[in-house]
Queue: 2 jobs
Job 1
Amino acid sequence: MIDAPKVDWLALSPTLALLAAAGVALLASVIGPAWFRRGFAAFVTFGGFVTAGVLAGFLFDRSPDAQPLLNESMTRDRWAALAAIVLAGAGALSVLVSWGETRRDHAGEYYALLAAAGAGMVFFVGASNLMTLFLGLEWFSLALYILCALDTHRATSLEAGLKYLIVGSFGSGILLFGSALVYGATGELGFAEIAAAGVTDDSLLLAGLAMIVAGLGFKASAAPFHMWTPDVYQGAPTSVTAFMSAATKVAALVLTLRVLTVAFPEQEHLWTVAVAVIAIVSLAVGNIAALVQRDVKRLLAYSSVSHAGFMLIAVAANSPLGGRALLYYLIPYSAMSIGSFAVVAARERELGAPVTLDNLGGFLWERPFLGASMWVFLLGLMGMPLTGGLVGKFYVFSAAYESGWWWLVVAGVIGTAISLYYYLRVLLAMWTRPEPTALRPVVAGGSPPRDPLLASAVFASFAVTIGSFFFVQPLIDLARDAADSLPF
Amino acid sequence: MGPDVTWYLVVAALLFSIGTLGVLLRRSPLIVLLSLEIMLNSANLALISFSRLHGDHDGQIFALAVMAVAASEVVVGLGLIVAVARRKLVLDVDRFRVLRG
């Protein structure tokens, strides 16, 4: 009988469910008959995401107190569990969005990779050790690099994949070297142990901290680490963009707040300022660059950079209210982001061409359901009433104000004001019917077949966007319970 | 008695800078991939020397895991480069500008 460590299977179950789904989907898409692959892989992956979400719900319910797992390399707490629920929801919606994408090959592998990326993210948000952090980061990143490049017949998809691989690995290289420096300064890898080592003003530790923040900034696509975002979002298959824009941001920001509060409480005065500066730069760069975009995917990519800025304001607040605001905001943000990219995907399949402001003309009247949903998503991203976006922004600002960051509030309000302009341009483009001067050639084969799965994903995102406004209190309570497991 | 840990750290920092400059300045994706590997391995060197300094094994285990990750990253990277080459796109990262950043 060897003395094996006790493994808390429930705490690992969401990751394991997704990993199992990825394995089964991959096997089926290699050895299964051709007609069977796509449907089976999609079904298994969807099931994996739903199971992971349900298991994470159990986990949330049953872990009021944070517990270390697996020799303290992971943590079982409500913070990770709630993030895992959001990630699983984002993944399930992305499967629905992906179904209508007609892919010539690798149709089954696509879903297997999606499940693998989800498993990596769920693993990543529970990390409480620099090694599990790095491994989780690479786990989901490698899957995403391949997903971006999966449409090998499109040059832009390959280009996006290669760019993401180079810039993403560059970011993880910086993160890894930072981890090595922190390990050198403290002799510890675990987050809690790093804080307990009591090293305060060591230059190795501070350099390491800066590099870790920069490395995570690459993943959250915060400026000035955002260079890859517009290109990759534009070039990747739109359903992958939908998943990436929501899930990567959730994973990266949730873990950023955890690593900063748990491992570096002594350096608080330094990293809050650094995060605040990154937030301001992201708001400025994202909102200003979005003004001149005509491609809708690029516009939404810059909008996601500016939203990374908003959420980093909540991180900089470094308070229970900030944690609550971050986790609450991620819920409607994920829905709005996936929903808007889903509508773009639908329009793209209809046109067989990239969606720009010019070919969105009259979309609201042509496809009333998708058009109206897109309006709601964009109004939500603006932060208009009746959507969760308003409440999210309000909570982020009040967290910043409470922690004395009034200039972050000012920057956020200015950013929102600038953002109205480019969101309104899209709304207007969808409203205005094109001039009926020339007969436009119609894509051969008439209008595309109805896609009830995509419509149901859009409807679910719509429901979450609106629902998170009307059911603020229960969601805020959940976020409060989750944020309580972090030491502020 | 070997050299002090500072020297190992200097070499690691030097390798890291070489890797960073390679990623930022070189144009062939193959060389860029190579530079990324140098960055990861400089971190490995730092991890291992700190592990020896502190006298525990965490850093060495971490370095082993990083090697596995680095290998899988190269697999994906080379796969993408082969796919690009098959489509006879020019292998020059400065010319990848269908999508302009």
Job 2
Amino acid sequence: MTDQDFMHHLGDVSVSIELETEDMTLNIGPQHPSTHGVLRLVAKVDGEIITDVEPVLGYMHRGYEKISEVRTYPQVTALVNRIDWVSGYANEIPFIVAAEKLMGVEAPERAQYIRVILTEMARLASHLAFMGSFPLELGATTPLMYAFRDRERILDLIESVTGGRFHPNFNRIGGVKSNAGAGKTQKKASQDLPAGFFTETLAAMDVVDASCDEMETLVGGNEIFLIRSKGVGVLPADIAVSYGVSGPILRASGVEFDLRKTEDYLPYDQFDFDIPTGENGDSYDRWYVRLQEIRQSARIIRQAIEGIPSGPLRAKVPLIIKVPKGEAYVRAENPKGEMGYYLVSEGGQGPYRLKIRSSSFSNLSILPWILEGVLLPDLLAVMGSLDFVLGDVDR
Amino acid sequence: MIAELMANFWVVLGLKLGIIGLLVPVSGLFIGYAELKISAHMQARVGPYFAGGRYGWAQLIADGIKFFQKEDLIPDEADRPVFKWAPALVLLSSVSLFLVIPFSDTLVVRDLDIGIFFVLAISSVGTIGVMMAGWASANKYSLIGALRAAGQLIAYELPMVLSVIGVVILAETMSLNGIVEAQANFHLIGEVGTPFVLLQPLAFGIFMISAIAEMSRAPFDMPLAESEIVTGYLTEYSGFRFLFFFLGEFANMFTFSAIAATLFLGGYDPMFFNAPSITGPVWLLMKIALVVFVLIWVRWTWPRFREDQLQRLAWKWLVPLALLNIVITATAKVVF
């Protein structure tokens, strides 16, 4: 080899060394402070830029769909509580309504109203948790404490009615858990809503509203919060729709779609409330839409308390519940998006097949699309703005 | 006898170093406790409550003892000597800064002619320790954290140096004692001294922002960024090596507050109050407490910047503003 050839090759080598930098594969999770549980992301990073993300799910798969095939209907209610544990109560509703639909039973109106109140409380609990966790992803620890302090009031109220903070297991086919009207003893007859529940709830709603104002000015008015969330993780409406994204994320992208308005699983048509929507579909809009939804939920609860009728809490149902042969799909607007149960019954005491369409799982399908090309600090911020719960993803 | 001893160079040096060796953990304890309690009250919490029987005053002592009991974990893949020495280097840089802080006109380890230059130079040595820690940990999060720290160093060091120049122009000296004297003798109204923060508000702001970035505290805690990269370069550290970083952080808070107080708030000089010079340390400590409170306040109020946003802030705002400040100060110095 001549010197000239050698220098020529040397030049080639140095060029290729300079231009090709290897992407680093960063394994985020399943144990990581900000993945909200055991989500694992295999991310390829070029410096701080994400070039590719692959979510790996299933670390918390508990097989609820399969387990529910060998459980009776009342037992399944206890299971579905644990799907999205941040808003446990809201998970029960679509399942119970699906079973009621097949049985041809309808819950009494008072029970329906209690369901509405508690579902909206579950929404408050879920959204307030988000109000704390999203700024936490951006590095602000303080809003978390305030959001969780106010959330605690909601959980206390849920506990006072149902006996459980996270897992109420309060719904029964044909109504809500109660012996009122069915019991013979005084003790059983008194098991309606606890005394003072309405005044306590109204006071809590004022606290929640005040908390919203505080969040809007202190968090939403913070310059760093704005530059970290505005224009970050933009999700256009058409992409959101084609990926099957639902709930506040979809509404933040500007699609005015709320199952509370279109489905009749609960008597939402009797209440007056708005559907807040965003304009840009960025992280800020997703935060702001949820903030507005808290206000709307408080509004619904106030109306429900005002208009709650008296009457029995549970329709007449047989002691051993058997659902007639048939299929039903009931979907509901859960705090995190659309949740649906496809229930197939062969006439037994338990479901023959139960397909759970959970909101977080479908919402997470957007991750590889939305995270491509974002910066590493924004990875978890955008993920946080999607607000998912791993129990809801893996079931 | 005592006079004879005090004349001996080595005795004096030993005494001074002993005091500093004591001051570092003690200031760390005080600031750490203040941080726990103030942050708790800002966040509608109570904070440490049971340790020590009352108000949780012994919380950090208990934490320190806990750290000593922990296993000293070193990852298999780690570059052992570098991993071991990194925390020492970080702490060394914080401790060295204590050498030049004047607590009164005589109570200073060494009044260097280039005091402020020494401060700016030594304070960036800590970043080398951080980079060593990040590299030697053999952890990707640590590496990202360390690289962020390096990127941050370049961004904030320049505005910090430039902001100090305004003070140096006014004081006509780089000695920290000299700067305090200059403030005491700068009479704007009557016979009272003038803290330079009144003359250099812009420089004070830039200095504080840069100092927060230097200390990697929120809103500039990207090298640690718990919610993104676990805890950055600290991820693999445990036991007393972690304690070193921890102590270094609080010692850094103390020294930077002391330097901010010295440069801009009149240091040990009582300013508007007529007090004997022996009370110097008290005044300095009060001013330090004020600055430390602001640092804690800022930390628990704001979310975190993004690395590119810090660069933009530093290069597009802080550096031009600091240059503007120099121009204004120099012009004013010549005119008046």
